[in-house]
Write a structure and sequence with these properties.
Layout (H helix, E strand, L loop, with lengths): L7 E8 L5 E13 L2 E10 L1 H19 L3 E5 L5 E4 L1 H7 L3 H4 L4 H4 L8 H11 L1 E9 L5 E12 L5 E10 L1 H23 L1
Antiparallel strand pairs: 1-2, 2-3, 4-5, 4-8, 6-7, 7-8
Length: about 190
């Protein structure tokens, strides 16, 4: 087989002498050494990397089963992960929002100034409260939102996990009960 110009990279599942599977990466490169055309080959075991990637994929599949909206953001506030619960809650597909800023897309209304909220969040590594978001169809919803800060092995902030639950129905029911109580109180004063 002819080797193309430039390095060629291949991965495949191989077996050890005792039959255990392991992933290898093969890097082929054409080189001229002492005037002779040579093929340089580097083989590297990438089993641990493949297993870690597979574990991440399985975890993401589990997060997709949740009915709550689960969003992972980087420290620049860009969406890295958007589960199917977020698609259902907000109406945007994952492919449409990855890399976007969620507070702009969702037109987030905060219960306190964002700077204060972020200061509290980074001090405590977590935050929870109510937010108002706007869905793709323009409908405004109230969510209870919980944020958790992920830190890297050196303790530096790495990512933000946000879990949102639509409580609009609860809020409407509470408002309806309050209106009914007010009407009942007003009519009892008349009697």
């Amino acid at each position: 087989a002819a080797i193309q110009e430039g390095p060629q990279l291949f991965e495949w599942l191989a077996r050890t002498k005792d039959g255990r599977p392991h992933w290898v990466e093969v890097n082929l490169r054409r080189a001229v050494i002492n005037g002779e055309d040579r093929l340089l080959t580097v083989v590297r075991d990438i089993t641990a990397r493949k297993q870690a990637g597979e574990e991440l994929r399985r975890q993401a599949e589990l997060l997709d089963l949740a009915h709550d909206a689960i969003i992972v953001r980087d420290l620049n506030n860009r969406i890295l992960f958007w589960n199917s619960g977020a698609e259902e809650t907000y109406g945007w597909a994952k492919a449409e929002v990855l890399g976007q800023e969620p507070h702009q897309i969702l037109k987030t209304e905060f219960s306190q100034p964002l700077r204060e909220l972020e200061t509290e969040f980074f001090r405590q590594d977590q935050w929870q409260g109510e937010l108002t978001h706007t869905r793709r169809d323009g409908r405004r919803i109230v969510v209870t939102s919980r944020w958790a800060l992920q830190r890297d092995k050196d303790g530096k902030p790495a990512a933000i996990l946000e879990i949102n639950r639509d409580i609009s129905g609860q809020k409407q029911a509470e408002a309806g009960r309050a209106r009914l109580a007010a009407i009942l109180e007003a009519t009892s004063d008349m009697v």
